[in-house]
């Protein structure tokens, strides 16, 4: 894993690199982040780890502030910037997917707009790519910059997912590098409920991890309030695990066993004792109990049916409103086709 990073032998040539950045209401931080990303990209090109046609893809996820205006200005000014605008807010995972699907480069890195994951770590990821990794996971080595609540819930979540049989990389979110073939494989997944960190684990290919310390957000506030975090966590469970369904079966079995005992007790009371009319509690308690268990079960099954419904509809995940700088990437595409004909 880490030892790949400094090894001398390269298995691949320097790739054209795409850095994909989903942005939602990021006007406070966008210019600084772009400047930093451009600086990092130019450095990578200079030291021969990425080719000069590398690009940064900014995806505006239906922001309500000035994010798109800023993106347009940067895309106008800077050759290496491609700006993509979604028609409305579709959430981080969809925005990221939209950006990934627009790239044509050989290695693709996804990173949050606040650069909390540290753009300088892209170099180490590229080292792993050059050594032959198709998937490089950015893994947080510690969570000091998180609140106690976030740290506790996030780490607890990874543990629960592991228990539910969902294959995730511990403390890896959406900071990762994918090779072109890994990305092409990922783009074949048709599901509408995206949980990219789980889907990437399904790809296979050679993978490795890069550890880094996550910084705190320099400006603006988190676009992941508790509600969105819970929704992402729930998507991860329902999209990747049927353990809750199995738990319902077990719960149903336990409830049946309990009811059976109650039935025996009621019958025994009726047949062998003088208390011919059982008390209201012995009727009401099992009634309430079974009623509530059934409701709970129906609720969870309903969640899955809701997901099935979403998938069966096969609606497009998003519609792209505008793509700027496409002539730049188009030019690369033509060049690439010519190269493969050779
Ligand atoms: N984001 C997005 N669409 C949304 C919410 C967030 O594209 O609906 C982007 C956001 O601009 C950022 C990334 O997702 O680039 C992660 O968000 P944030 O940094 O606020 O999350 P946190 O670091 O607090 O988990
Ligand atoms: Mg962040």
Task: Kindly describe this structure.
This protein has 2 domains: 2-150 and 170-226 and 316-341, Alpha-Beta Complex (Spore Coat Polysaccharide Biosynthesis Protein SpsA, Chain A), CATH 3.90.550; 243-313. By secondary structure, it is α/β, with parallel strands linked by helices. The two termini are 35 Å apart. The chain is built from 11 helices and 8 strands. The chain has an 8-stranded mixed β-sheet, sandwiched between helices. α9 (243-272) runs antiparallel to α10. The protein is elongated. It binds uridine-5'-diphosphate (UDP) and magnesium ion.
Record keyword descriptors for this entry:
2 domains; 11 helices; binds magnesium ion; Spore Coat Polysaccharide Biosynthesis Protein SpsA, Chain A; binds uridine-5'-diphosphate; alpha/beta; eight-stranded mixed sheet; disordered N terminus; glycosyltransferase; Glycosyltransferase; 342 residues; glycosyltransferase activity; Glyco_trans_2-like
- Mean pLDDT figure: 85
* CATH-scheme architecture of the largest domain: Alpha-Beta Complex
Low-confidence stretches: 1-7, 330-342
What oligomeric state is this? single chain
In short, what is this structure?
This protein has helices at 30-46, 67-77, 92-102, 121-130, 148-163, 180-187, 196-201, 226-240, 243-272, 280-313, 326-341; strands spanning 17-23, 55-60, 81-86, 107-110, 135-140, 172-179, 207-212, 320-324. With 342 residues, the protein is an alpha/beta fold. The chain starts with 16 loop residues before the first strand and ends with a helix.
């Amino acid at each position: 894993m880490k030892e790949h990073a400094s090894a001398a032998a390269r298995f691949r040539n320097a790739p054209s690199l795409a850095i994909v950045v989903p942005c939602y209401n990021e006007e406070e931080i966008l210019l600084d982040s772009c400047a930093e990303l451009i600086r990092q990209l130019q450095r990578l090109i200079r030291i021969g780890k990425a080719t000069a046609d590398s690009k940064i893809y900014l995806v505006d996820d239906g922001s309500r502030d000035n994010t798109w205006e800023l993106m347009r200005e940067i895309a106008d000014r800077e050759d290496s910037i491609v700006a993509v605008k979604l028609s409305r807010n579709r959430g981080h995972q969809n925005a990221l997917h939209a950006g990934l699907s627009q790239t044509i480069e050989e290695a693709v890195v996804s990173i949050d707009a606040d650069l909390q994951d540290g753009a300088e770590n892209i170099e180490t990821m590229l080292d792993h790519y050059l050594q032959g990794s198709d998937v490089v996971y950015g893994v947080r080595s510690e969570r000091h910059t998180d609140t106690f609540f976030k740290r506790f819930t996030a780490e607890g979540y990874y543990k629960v997912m592991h228990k539910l049989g969902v294959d995730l990389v511990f403390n890896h979110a959406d900071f990762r590098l994918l090779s072109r073939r890994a990305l092409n494989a990922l783009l074949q997944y048709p599901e509408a409920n995206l949980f990219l960190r789980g889907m990437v684990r399904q790809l296979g290919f050679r993978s490795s991890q890069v550890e880094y310390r996550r910084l705190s957000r320099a400006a603006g506030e988190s676009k992941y309030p508790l509600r969105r975090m819970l929704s992402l966590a729930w998507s991860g469970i329902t999209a990747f695990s049927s353990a809750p369904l199995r738990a319902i079966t077990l719960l149903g079995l336990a409830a049946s066993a309990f009811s059976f005992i109650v039935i025996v007790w009621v019958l025994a009371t009726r047949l062998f004792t003088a208390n011919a009319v059982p008390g209201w509690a012995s009727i009401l308690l099992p009634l309430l109990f079974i009623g509530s268990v059934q409701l709970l079960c129906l609720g969870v099954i309903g969640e899955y049916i809701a997901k099935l419904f979403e998938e069966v509809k096969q609606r497009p995940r998003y519609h792209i409103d505008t793509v700027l700088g496409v002539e730049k990437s188009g030019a690369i595409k033509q060049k690439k086709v010519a190269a493969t004909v050779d």
